[in-house]
Amino acid sequence: MNLTENFESVKKFAVDAAQTAAQKAKILAAVAKANVSIYAEEDKIRKAEAQLGKLYYRDYAVGEEMDTAEYLPWCQKIDESKKLIAELKDYIDDVKAADEVPAEAPAASEEDFADEKPAQKEAASKEAPCACTETPCCCGQTAPKAPAETPEIKIEVSGSEDKAE
């Protein structure tokens, strides 16, 4: 066996290992992306259930008859999210079973990550200014800059007696 054959076999082994690693990375990325979409849908379900509960309790507290027309859109959102979660879980199972990345998974859109009622957030921000000092502000406003220097506080102790006021 000569040096060239050894080099070629090592080169082939390295190429095969790199291709296998790349394929595994693609599989893991696809599974991770699907899991993020699942978490987004679960969050949407929690928000819709909370809103549905608020509506139901509001009607219960004032003694009104339950208005199913008002509840129906929230129930449909929950059903849609549960259906998408089931599809995503099937996709993950397919990816793991086939050991390769099939067609694109049904993914969450950017609006899935947005709050259900941005108008409420805007109204709250108009009521009171945000005290946040982060540069993109947590509420979307332009945050006031923190003062360059914090004022120095000096405490002076005079006398040796403790005074209670």
- Distance from first to last alpha carbon: 96 Å
Biggest beta-sheet profile:
none
What is the overall shape?
flat
Uncertain stretches: 116-134, 141-148
Give the oligomeric state of the chains in this entry, treating copies of one chain as homo and distinct chains as hetero: single chain
Mean pLDDT: 74
Give the helix tally. Answer: 3
Number of strands: 0
SS-based structural class? mainly alpha
The arrangement of helices and strands along the chain is HHH
| Secondary structure: helix percent | 55-70%
Q: Percent of residues in beta strands?
A: under 5%
The value of Rg in angstroms is 29 Å
Index terms:
0% strand; 3 helices; single chain; 165 residues; mainly alpha
Topology:
Layout: H1 3-62, H2 68-98, H3 118-127
Helix pairs in contact: 1-2
Description:
The protein is mostly helical and 165 residues long. It is built from three helices and no strands. Helix 1 runs antiparallel to helix 2. The radius of gyration is 29 Å and the shape is flat. The termini are far apart.
Question: What's the quick description here?
Answer:
This protein is mostly helical. The protein contains three helices and no strands. The protein starts with a helix and ends in a 38-residue tail after the last helix.
